[in-house]
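thought: fold this chain, then report.
action: predict
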Amino acid sequence: MESFESEFEKSMMRSPEAAKVISSYMQDQYPTAIDYMKRIGKMNEAIANAMHAKEQAERLQLESLAREAEYRMEMEAQNKNVKKLREISTLKCKNYNQTWLNNAKITKKCNDV
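observation:
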């Protein structure tokens, strides 16, 4: 599990889905294991409570990192869209200016005749 978590942390920035998988695993498996150890007497209640709190904090951190990664990807997509729209707008302005200049030249020729 430790190796898996280590690999997960390395890939975290690339995949919010990975964070969701780990968070789900932690939510489903860790509390069961802690409760089992407490039930069989291998752990006292204070330690079990501390482990539950630690697990919850780690899970919430993973969930927030996943949301952060999703927001980052969304912002990057929006930034690309804005950049593309600016490029299109710039091209349209250049085309409009060129058309206006051409029309002005044609009008001048017509007036000179």
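thought: worth noting. The chain has one domain: 2-112.
final: tokens above.
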